[in-house]
């Protein structure tokens, strides 16, 4: 089975875990997969969960996929920002430093989905009493 056949198998509803493991270690293959379903980052080889381009493609499709990224990338501002822009609740999986960063919390609150209160509940306790953030989390704007 080559990459093209493996990709077709998966896109046709096949179980990614039934594919030969070599595909889960293949960067270009996994980028194609996570562009369609970012949560498939959870199936990628651990080495690819450390790869910025693979993780970036995943969080652009699904901010929640940040959960499966290597901890080193949960500290990467560009990755986290992309994840929380996509889904504000992804702040939950970000490094603690971002949960204390007011501008990152605001970006999460203003997210397309999972913003508002969903994102705000993952902010650091030091920001939980911030009136402006509380109001923003109620409206999302």
Overview in brief:
The protein is an all-alpha fold. The protein has helices spanning 3-11, 27-36, 52-61, 77-86, 96-99, 102-109, 116-120, 131-139.
Give your account of this protein's structure.
The chain is mostly helical. The protein has two domains: 1-75, no CATH class; 87-141, no CATH class. 46% of the residues lie in helices and 0% in strands. The chain contains eight helices and no strands. The longest helix has 10 residues, at 27-36. The chain starts with a helix and ends with a helix.
What is the total domain count?
2
Distance between termini? 49 Å
| Largest sheet properties | none
| SSE pattern, N- to C-terminal | HHHHHHHH
Total count of strands: 0
Q: Number of helical segments? A: 8
Stretches where pLDDT is under 50 for at least 5 consecutive residues are: none
- Rg result: 17 Å
What general outline do the C-alpha atoms trace? elongated
Structural class: mainly alpha
Mean pLDDT: 93
- Approximately what portion of the residues adopt beta-strand conformation? under 5%
Proportion in helices: 40-55%
């Amino acid at each position: 089975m080559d990459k093209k056949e493996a990709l077709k198998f998966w896109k046709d509803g096949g179980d990614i875990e039934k594919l030969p493991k070599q595909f889960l270690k293949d960067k270009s293959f996994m980028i194609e997969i996570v562009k369609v379903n970012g949560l498939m980052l959870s199936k990628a080889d651990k080495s690819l969960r450390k790869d910025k381009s693979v993780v970036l493609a995943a969080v652009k499709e699904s901010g929640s996929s940040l959960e499966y990224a290597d901890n080193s990338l949960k500290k990467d501002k560009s990755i986290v920002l992309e994840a929380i822009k996509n889904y504000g609740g992804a702040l939950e999986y970000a490094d603690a430093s971002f949960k204390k960063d007011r501008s990152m919390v605001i970006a999460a609150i203003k997210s397309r989905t999972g913003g508002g209160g969903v994102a705000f509940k993952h902010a650091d306790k030091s920001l939980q009493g911030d009136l402006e953030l509380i109001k923003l989390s109620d409206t999302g704007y």
